[in-house]
């Protein structure tokens, strides 16, 4: 690896209204290395990346890239310099082919009027072979899995002759197999002297894949280290400014009456004969591999998607749930895994989102809402949940992932819900924000709620749950009490294999 800086930032400062987002940030990234960028949600990572991508202009400071110096970059300059960003929400067109997505914005032309599709397909196939990807370049992108789509985005950056590829939470939605494939591609990029900035809350990944590390907190850089010089515990302490003594703050709460009982819930071809119960004071976790049908099952349970048959009882009373409105009426709160698309209205404020489920409580009359009452309620709940924002008029889309998750939870706190279903409650949020979410779940339990948690992180299930139900291909294949928790047993059941 060349010991040469490809990127150096000197005293980059960026202010938004009322907020100092970046405070004299300085860092350097060597050519051909994988450089980790970590920090709590709201630490300034996203703003920094947007400065590099040309989406934000810094108020002061200098950007040195490949021997050139810039006060700021435009998106076009960043692309021309060879800076490519791969975000969590991939910038792709599903109905177009793999080739068309690789060449998107940089199409090959025969002449002024016609595209050279044959040559584009040939080159796309070469790139795919170079990275040992078994993907047909003529396949519509929408037919590929999330992991494969991410690989295509990397191929697109390679076609654009990127010198620096910025990956934002690249494994957040990937299976273990797809994550392993991504790590193989990253090593191949290193061999080609392509530099990678790797942003992730999965600190073990950062420790394993990165060569060096920058840690941010409250808009400042608090550490620039070689990865070999730090432990995961060191990184956590630098990120949060304190020691996290209990990664999973499980509380011993008395388990009460049966809150929810489900019998024979079925949707043909998706999930079949799902039966379980959960009590007040209890966390019931659903574990399983990608495609096990866990999310589809709770969407069927809550009326978000249809189910063919099944019986649902809430606190001893049979209920019919055909729609989300029926679910809410029954006292079931469903916090979806996709908070940006389905949990929040990003162009609306914290106060609007946090009162959305129970707007009827803020009616002045038949025609007008009590806006003052909404603002007071939102301010109170934002303080209780420690939502970090200048004020409650801040748009949900401007918040960090952890704070967005808190706003989703705020929606339900004022309702009469006693059964909370969390689908991937800590996906894409940092270790400090995770602790806060776990503590909020504990508070719900202490107030007599029952919690169902779907998580792809086995450690999270084992750390917080009282029971774990395992699913495989739409069926329940195992159930373990807390004293029986064992990674091997869970993996056997998740793979559909008997552990006898």
Automatic annotation (TrEMBL):
InterPro entries: AAA+_ATPase, ABC_carbohydrate_import_ATPase, ABC_transporter-like_ATP-bd, ABC_transporter-like_CS, P-loop_NTPase. Residues 7-243, 255-498 form the ABC transporter domain. GO terms for cellular component: plasma membrane. SUPFAM superfamilies: P-loop containing nucleoside triphosphate hydrolases (SSF52540). Its EC number is 3.6.3.17. Signal peptide: none annotated. It is an enzyme of class 3 (hydrolase). Keywords: ATP-binding, Cell membrane, Hydrolase, Membrane, Nucleotide-binding, Repeat, Sugar transport, Translocase, Transport. It comes from the Bacteria. It is found in: Cell membrane. It is a peripheral membrane protein. GO terms for molecular function: ATP binding; ATP hydrolysis activity. Coiled coil: none annotated. This is Monosaccharide ABC transporter ATP-binding protein, CUT2 family.
